[in-house]
Amino acid sequence: MDMSSIISLLQTSLELGLVSSLTVLALFLSYTMLNVCDLSTDGCFTLGAAVGAVVALSGHPFLSIPAAMAAGMLSGLITGVLQTKMGIDSLLSGIIVNTALYSINIAVMGNSSLLNLNKTETIFTMLKSAFAGTAFAASYKTVIVLIAVAVVVVFLTLFLGTRLGLAIRATGNNPDMVRSSSINPVFTTLVGLCVANAFTALSGCMLGQLQKSVNIDIGTGMVTMALASLLIGRAFMGKGPVSVRAVGAVVGAIIFRIVYAIALRFNMPAFMLKLVSSIIVIIAISGPYIKTQIPVIKRRMSAGKGRVE
Question: Does any domain span residue 296?
Fold first, then answer.
């Protein structure tokens, strides 16, 4: 592989990693802070991509961003209502909404499973002229996505430091204590899921417009990828303030995409890539536990050798 191919591979991995990091940041809010594993992520990601594509096709690429985020917030609201108002388990609520979103996404896409944006203005083509003649002209897409990610990281850092943000974090840590403190955990759960799903939909919207096509399976496996990226980021950045952990989530998403790209370079069949994702998740989750068990295994082996002798 020559140097130009390596640079191209890294740039593509960086772009896709930054886009998917918006979903990872959504999981950072819902899973890490709110302690809710939202399994509607795959469907919400596709919803954001579909709504963004439809709005862009209608001639309003910039409106596609708020439209997609609003759709994501509605998805998060429904998931939250099922959990908090109807007594449905959080995992089951996510599965129900994710299943329902498949039909909704098909309807949003006009009863089609594929939308082509090749001849459509997107946020990237609209902003391309702004970078013409600058040092970022060749990598303007990366810069645009990087700005979006930076805005979300700053927003999360500031938001989770507010009174409402602290209440959301407290709800995830100890909902019983929150109730005794006159804070409504139902409200904080709904707000947290709405904000998180808005980021997920934004991620889907940007990916659809980045690759200029949206298909009904664009969000498949996103929750697995996001969880793996979140754990990878935690392993690299460790525990710290919200800003550091949020940046760690972004770093984890980029690392995941680089590993994914390397697997592709080995001419691995497309149907094997989901297996690769699962293996990465297993390593990311079990790695810290296995690391703590290594000294125990060594002591047992040493004890076994001593008895044999």
Answer: no
- Residue 258 in contact with residue 10, Cβ under 8 Å? yes
Identify the segments of the chain with pLDDT beneath 50: none
What's the domain range around 20?
Answer: 3-267
DSSP 88: -
Alpha carbon distance 223, 203 (integer Å): 12
Place of tokens 């290594």: 294
* Cα–Cα distance for residue pair 261/225, rounded to 1 Å: 13
What does pTM read for this prediction? 0.89
Contact criterion met (CB below 8 Å) for 55 and 67: yes
pLDDT value at position 227? 87
| Range 80-88 contact pairs with CB under 8 angstroms and sequence separation of 24 or more | 80/189, 80/190, 80/192, 80/193, 80/194, 81/190, 83/36, 83/189, 84/185, 84/186, 84/189, 84/190, 85/186
Residue 66 domain flag: yes
pLDDT mean across residues, the chain: 87
CATH code of residue 230: 1.10.3470
Give the distance, in angstroms, between the CA of residue 261 and the centroid of all CA atoms in the same chain.
18
305 lies in a domain?
Answer: no
Looking at the structure of the chain, the number of domains it has is 1
| SS3 readout for 93-116 | HHHHHHHHHHHHHHHHCCCCCEEE
pLDDT at residue number 309: 55
Inside any domain, residue 143:
yes
